[in-house]
Specification:
The complex is a heterodimer. Chain A is mainly α. Helices cover 65% and strands 2% of the residues of chain A. Chain A is globular, with a radius of gyration of 22 Å. Chain B contains 2 helices and 3 strands, in the order ββαβα. Chain B is elongated and about 70 Å long. Classes of the chains: A mainly alpha, B alpha+beta.
């Protein structure tokens, strides 16, 4: 939609007052450039994450152990595609074109969640992704339903509604394996070992090292800090692991009654931030494969897009001729 | 590669959940023509029976009021006589 009207200068104070009154910001409203930029970056990364997130799971669609599992996984991966599209459309309302975003993803310039740069060697990894990765995503996304930017908040409401099945299907896979043969249980435990720390890292750097958090909280884009969300995640997952007899791979994990303002919570071990930054910078196990897969899909789909345009043009011409 | 490709048309999508309710805006979609727009809108916005009718309209065809003139355009604080509470009616008249 037209952007000219947005260019009108809005004072930061006026804007902040509007945010403090819990008013939503809509696409054509005036907004500070930094607010627009922060949102474009965040929504864009979020959209790319949904899209790249299809790849590790897509890896198992043809090898799902039963038809029931295959149907669920297909539906889940299709949801991720849909979620990517809802988010791209929210980012587009801020004046960034779809083609620009696609280009940034394909060139490797755009960031997406590092979690998708890890491989999925076994079926249990699909369970671990649904349970842990979607679990962490939901923790992150529920507060975003109240985000100050209207189109982002509306997309998130839709996404959260659909996503709750994702975590349940993942946990069900883990539960089934954990109750299976010794080998199956070991497979589930190894997948948990692989995905635990990358999932804990999904919330991003510690608050002390997160330069974007302050403005984002002030503008009500984010409602909780990275560390607050990480704590919620650990507290939720630890009992779920116990319930199915799996062990969270952290020897420093213990109940700490001082956490969560004295309500208690789990203390957890040191996070390997070197690994986190290494994967963010592009040196994770699957960074190159993920981007190559997206480039391949884009290039191989080129004739389809060309044909669709040609078809649309042909029909339009026929319509004009008939008039 | 992509740089040579055209941007596809952007369409706004409206879904009617069931008869008796109005079509409601739910997002947008890219598609080269209206048939493909309807098809994509169905795939993206109605995977769980959210609707039984879809409208798509080109985003550039939507005409919108100026958000910076909300006050002038929509204020009705000076027209309280348009609301029922403006009028005094004895309590024992009952519900009116």
């Amino acid at each position: 939609m037209a952007r000219e009207q947005n260019e009108k200068i809005v004072s930061l104070e006026e804007f902040q007052e509007k945010i403090d009154r819990d008013e939503k910001i809509e696409p054509k409203d005036s907004m500070p450039e930094a607010y627009r930029k922060t949102l474009i970056r965040q929504i864009g990364q979020h959209a790319h994450s949904e899209v790249v997130g299809m790849l590790p799971e897509g890896n198992w669609i043809t090898r799902a152990p039963t038809l029931r599992r295959k149907l669920s996984l297909l539906a889940k991966v299709q949801d991720e595609a849909g979620h990517g599209l809802y988010l791209y459309c929210a980012a587009e309302t801020l004046g960034k074109s779809r083609m620009e975003m696609t280009q940034e993803l394909l060139s490797g310039e755009a960031k997406y969640s590092s979690i998708f740069n890890y491989p999925t060697p076994t079926w249990a990894d699909i369970g671990a992704i649904g349970w842990l990765v979607d679990g962490a995503a939901i923790m992150n996304q529920i507060p975003l339903c109240r985000c100050s930017y209207g189109p982002y908040a509306r997309a998130m409401i839709r996404i959260c509604k659909e996503e709750s099945f994702h975590q349940r299907q993942g946990y069900e896979i883990m539960l089934t394996l954990a109750r299976g043969t010794k080998a199956q249980k070991e497979m589930a435990q190894r997948a948990l070992n692989r995905w635990w720390w990358p999932s804990v890292m999904m919330f991003g750097p510690s608050d002390a090292d997160s330069p974007n958090t302050e403005n984002s909280v002030k503008w009500k884009i984010k409602r909780y800090t990275n560390d607050e969300l990480r704590q919620k995640f650990v507290d939720a997952i630890v009992p779920q692991a116990k319930k199915i007899g799996l062990t969270v791979p952290d020897k420093d994990l213990k109940w700490d009654k001082k956490r969560n303002n004295g309500q208690g919570g789990y203390a957890y071990g040191e996070i390997n931030w070197d690994e986190f930054w290494r994967v963010v910078r592009g040196d994770g196990p699957m960074n190159n494969e993920r981007i190559s897969a997206k480039q391949k899909a884009w290039n191989e789909g080129s004739w389809v897009r060309a044909a669709a345009h040609a078809h649309a043009l042909k029909k339009q011409t026929a319509l004009h001729a008939a008039e | 590669m992509a740089s040579e490709e055209k941007e596809t048309i952007l369409w706004e999508v409206f879904i009617q959940p069931k008869n008796g309710l109005s079509h409601r805006h739910c997002g947008s979609i890219h598609a080269p023509d209206r048939e493909m727009a309807i098809l994509s809108a169905r795939n993206v916005y109605s995977r769980r029976g959210e609707g039984q009718s879809i409208w798509v309209v080109k985003s550039i065809d939507i005409v919108s009021s100026d958000p910076d003139e909300k006050e002038e355009t929509f204020s009705s604080d000076d027209k309280i006589y348009r609301h029922p509470t403006f009028y005094d009616v004895p309590d024992d008249v009952g519900h009116m």
